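In the previous chapter we treated chains in isolation. Here, by contrast, the input contains three separate entities that must be folded as one system, with a combined length of 1082 residues.
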Amino acid sequence: MAFIPHTPDDVAGMLEVVGVQSIDALFDEIPRELRAGVLDLPPAMCEMEVGRLLAERAASDGRPLNFIGAGAYEHHIPAPVWAITTRGEFYSAYTPYQAEASQGTLQLIYEYQSMICALTGMEVSNASMYDGASALAEACLMAVRANRAASSRRILLPRTVNPTYAQVAKSIAGQQGIVFETVDFDRSKGRTLLESLQPYAGQDINALVVQQPNFFGNLEEADQLTEWAHQHKILLIAVVNPIAMALLSPPGQWGSAVGGNLGADIVCGEGQALGVPLAAGGPYFGFMATRMQFVRQMPGRIVGRTVDAEGRPGFSLTLQAREQHIRRSKATSNICTNQGLMVTAATIYMSLLGGEGLSRVAAACLQRTADLVARLCAISGVKPAFTAARFHEAVLLLDRPVAPVLAALARRGIFGGLDLTERYPELGHALLVCATETKLDADINAYAAALGDIMQSSRAAA
Amino acid sequence: MAELQAREPLIFELGKSGRRAGTQFPPQVTGSAEIPAHLRRAAPPLLPEVSELQVVRHFTRLSQMNFSIDTHFYPLGSCTMKYNPKACNSFAMLPEFLGRHPLGPEPQGFLACMYELQEMLQEITGMQAVSLTPMAGAQGEFAGVAMIRAYHRSRNDLGRTEIIVPQAAHGTNPATAAMCGCTVKEIACDANGDIDIDALQAAVGPATAAIMLTNPSTLGVFERKITEVARIVHAAGGLLYYDGANLNAILGKVRPGDMGFDVIHMNLHKTFSTPHGGGGPGSGAVGVGARLRPFLPIPIVDKDGARFRWLTERDLPQSIGRLSGFMGNAGVNLRAYIYMRLLGRDGMVRVAEFAALNANYLLKRLQAAGFEAAYPTRRASHEFIITLKRENRLYQVTAMDVAKRLLDYGFHAPTTYFPLLVPECLLIEPTETEAKEDLDRFCEAMIAIRREMEQEPEKLSSAPHTMPVRRLDDVRAAKQLDLSWKPAA
Amino acid sequence: MSNIPSDLRYTKSHEWVRREQNGTVAIGISDHAQSALGDLVFVEVPDVGRAVSAGEACAVVESVKAASDVYSPVSGKVIAGNAALAAQPELLNQDPYGAGWLFRVQTNSPADEAALMSAADYANYLADSAK
């Protein structure tokens, strides 16, 4: 029996102590008519058999060459990251409720919080959220709690923010009456213009969300947008890519120092790029950071440094009374867990790369994507969609529907990118491509050759 | 007096300017790609500057300061700290699974596992459909309540905004209700731990959206009148929500669907042994009966002939929507799948049997040693509550003191002060994967602590003595906030 | 046994009210409340000038174990908040009826005050709740 250590002698001895004749008697408080019959479940398999099954299924999924980004990024994960993260002391530990028995996890989270502050330029970080999308939803709820100058629950959400994040924000924050106002993007530049925000000047708006780089991979004019928001007493929620933060001005520096209001107010994003594998979509983790003045409105766990009874430094969960505390007047969160294991991996990753290594990774991503775009746009029928500066993703326009092209690439073992046709129909035949530091010259050549072949061997659609 | 040092410095303090783990840097690239000057970061972020060995040693040493299932008996009530099989991790980390981008063509091998997991979870809970999307128990709860709201709205029953919750409920229950724009109505339980049926009858009405229940309850006992509860709530037009935190107690023995529940959330990181990871990631899969099926959060795996595919907005137009950027905690769900295949039908039925055997055995031994059970006439489910209110009165000892002293004896403490109803309580859940000898060792430690209560109570009030730190100052942690390292000026 | 000064009035949510001059009242939380919360780590008082209604949540007290809303027992306008509590929340634990006052309200509804409990009624209320 899987993982049950009891021998028949053990069972007999224990039943005697309990004072019952059989294990079944332990369930005698459950009404007979509720007892389940025989369940239609497969029989047990030994580890060897399960191993075979999983290996076959994995083999059938294969290892295609990946050029998709769109919120989940393929990066090299150093060997120590998961060797240490899967140590039993990290893997099978629980939430650090007994702080004295969890100093390893607690110190690690404190170091993680410090690193997120360094990356984002913000004053305080929490111990993580479930993922980037739900972190944005929570950031919106937090903005409503924190913005004393606004009484509405209206939040400006540009279309250059990841559309799935927008959907998740609506599913979660929409339940508490938060209204999202859509702000369009400039068709040629591929980013949000100040002109699009102007209609909202003087209205009762709670927050503005700015994603940097945006969903198209383009760079927003973050300083401008932040200044505009602060001028109008609107909180600025930044959604950022953590690798990009090594090269881009961090949200803690956005806007202007005039009025003592430098920087975004709430920062969130997807942390997966920091040492967490793609793994078919999860588990990932969301990060969240803010100004010290808003720390009590920030959801999630937070680790603080303190001292023990002998004055020795130590770490514990703090500000716990905020969690699950229901404030009647404003918005509420119910978040209980964080993403401990992924935070462990990310902290080890950031320690190994350091500032210099992260800059190298980011620089490589920037260049590889530029190279990819140049090679692909040299193919007849392929051109870039936008003129704005970009980081490690780009939108390309094809002269024919994208889906059949991607299918043809997939048959050659290449995942060419994300088809944007449904999400942004006004762009036409649009494809979002990404090349990280993992893509070598040979990979980019392979993609270009395959695409050239595919484009040539069929007529362009009208 | 020399300042006492922490056992392990911060990673930042180990660094030195110019030190790096160079093998981890990607090759230098040549090219002219540039970030425009006005958007550029002025200086690289202030992250540690350490060697690879320093990183490995630092985090290995940190891990050695943790209690974990792999190293200690961990009877944390309501958390189900059972063995996390290594195979679940190794197979889930096969490179083909690990390297898969979620937005590519649907991975048939991986989706076959997800589909079968949905089917198995349906069968074991007696529900009609399952979504694996919610990323934690709290998100599962959110999905459950949101679906209930959507159901009532779809029938134009707009006044149903009250959720009934037992007094002993977990804190996330009322918070979740508030997140969905509902209010909470608490009802009491009787002296034996069952719901007060009269109170329930008085509480239901046209404003009742649902009742949120755990069964066995947070008091560690089976809700004997559950059929009656279901009848009353359904008759009033409300739905039944099952908080699956205690599913380990009844797995394979009773199915929530058969008890009348309309929606259930499961904690895969409890019942199905996915790793606790120092506080996550979890997975809060939800199961529903036919009524709530159209509202399930997306995406869900469907089988179309021999092919697996994701069902999305188009297929479920009434869905409460997406809760995550992709499909939830895929890797966690895969580990749960592997666990269920290892256990199989018979193995899963054994879970509740041995969880109950271990819990009842431990309860009897502790009672024999002089400890007071909160519900002495009831069977333990997979967990039980000891109350130290008498010891508190006699020796001024608290549940917190006992918990801290247990650490010195090499055991992680049980859950303390939950449920709030029972004063000075310990909620003890051994789980089915513990051997009798380990339970006996735990009892010996509790017996020794009992002796200390009577003879040397200061050993308890100043515990722990043998951990990397003594008892920590929580008040200072909250008043003098030190939440991130800053370089010395 | 908690301290319940006889010259104050009380609410079921454990606020106390002291009538001062010119229609002003001072408001805080009772000894029972501060004891139940434990060592306070954070207190937030309402801004001066804010209008409050009787029963409206307008302040927060937070300890390591719990965060609680404080409800204004009367309607009116906030004319002062105890700024000392920001740096020293423990003042509330030490002296809940004196230095630990939370805020003062210029009240315009004597009916609210009449509805409050006397010290004796509050003591009975506490005794009943403990059963």
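Strands of chain C lie at 9-10, 15-19, 24-29, 40-44, 51-52, 57-63, 67-71, 76-81, 103-107. Residues 7 and 119 of chain C are 7 Å apart (CA to CA). Compare these points with the single-chain example from earlier in the chapter.
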